[in-house]
Amino acid sequence: MTRTSDPYRPGDPFELEALRVALAGLDLDDGEAARSRAAADYHWYSPVLDEKLRGRRPDLVVRPRSADEVLRVAAACARHRVPLTVRGGGTGNYGQCVPLFGGVTLDATALDRVLAIEAGWARVEAGVLIHELNLAVRASGQQLRMWPSTERIATLGGFIAGGHSGIGSIRHGILADPGNVRRLRVVTLEDPPRVLELEGADIQKAHHAYGSNGIVVEVEVALAPFVEWQHTIALFDHYGDVLRFGLAAAADPALDLFQLSAVERRITPYYAGLRDRLEDRDAMFAQVSPATLPAYAACVTAMGGRLVVRGSEAELLAAGLPSATECAYNHTTLEALKTDRGVTYLQVAYPAPLDPALVARQMVRLGDEVLFHHEFSRAGGELVAFALPLVHYFDEDQLHQLIKGFEADGCTIFDPHTWVLEDGGMKQVDEAQLEFKKLADPHGLMNPGKVRAWDERVLGIPGGRL
Ligand SMILES: Cc1cc2nc3c(=O)[nH]c(=O)nc-3n(C[C@H](O)[C@H](O)[C@H](O)COP(=O)(O)OP(=O)(O)OC[C@H]3O[C@@H](n4cnc5c(N)ncnc54)[C@H](O)[C@@H]3O)c2cc1C
After folding, report:
1. Which atom of ligand 1 is nearest to the CA of 45?
2. The domain 16-109+430-459: what is its CATH number?
């Protein structure tokens, strides 16, 4: 049965049985365990999301094994008006993978083939694990330009649809910077579906859209020559010294850096595997090329620090130490949450260039309530710094007050306590993404409830409500 052309509205009934029949022969699972697993991502870092999204689950999980099977799922969901949420590794922090109104979760992890590896790029199915792709391209003497600190468990498609930047961004910029992602193949949610190719600036239409405007089935991503990055920890007497060192190191053309993550001494005790190495000091975790490691070490010393750990990732792991990757980005929050469930976090972008004096004032003002950790990165060619500070959580109002304070300092907040795409960081409607959603998801079935502009402009209902 084909429905009217009216878009799906949250709460509309849908034809699950008819969908099940249409998908006969595919890998389907509607068991309790599969449905709960498919609704779990890392939104529990936020006590706000943890409470508000509790109990939201898909009715059915489908795990397509090929792009043809994806086309069948897309056509059937469109025909029977069933909401669809795509899921990769399920490591997103904003409930991106949580289906707010049930329906189908499309688990993309069986779409994991590496299709081509050439000099400077690889073409892969979107569900490939980033770590597996890094291993696959290693044989050609290459590596990805960047990855999230969840490299071992996140998919490339999920990183592009839900992520922003990561390890490597100090060298290659953020995902949205031109050339990092070269092409996306996207399946629309129509009956019959279309297959669209996005290249160049058009990639932004589906990048960081939370899977709300098409199923990414294939990705062409840029590669860089392989470097055996040396993971290092440098200790300093003051957090301000770490930040000043970060600014100097990042700007030094003699240094080839892949990661630069500053972590203050009130956080480092959370790193269980490093406690006796960090000596109650403020730390810079970095990945440095072997060729420029001596210059890096000299720079550390010249700026009053001491290099206390160095080695390849394999060497660190063999010594029972965590890699620098897993001490950075949101792994810092994870390490804290392992022992302290009273902690949550914020995401704070600073005006460039970072002013360590501003951070010092914030540390005095916020006292023990907020513990600091900064990532140095490049975005649009500019050196930028953003913090993922830990917050000793009291209530939602506290977060609002903290956000106001950071904004009064001239910082921009990427709020990790909302499931709404625009409220998280964009703070404005991405018109190109909205237009693309009208084209690729005309019935509004993809991850419904996540795009405020769709709810308010197309459906005429308030956005951000459950
Ligand atoms: C400890 C920790 C550290 C993190 N560090 C970083 C970091 O350094 N940088 C960073 O950017 N993020 C980081 N994140 C967030 C998250 O890990 C990344 O964004 C990750 O790359 C998401 O990949 P995934 O496969 O888990 O995606 P998922 O969580 O499965 O999905 C993310 C979003 O993408 C959509 N999606 C997934 N696959 C597809 C597809 N094929 N087509 C269309 N839409 C799709 C989903 O619907 C969802 O909206 C971190 C999270 C944690 C828990």
Report:
1. 53
2. 3.30.43.10
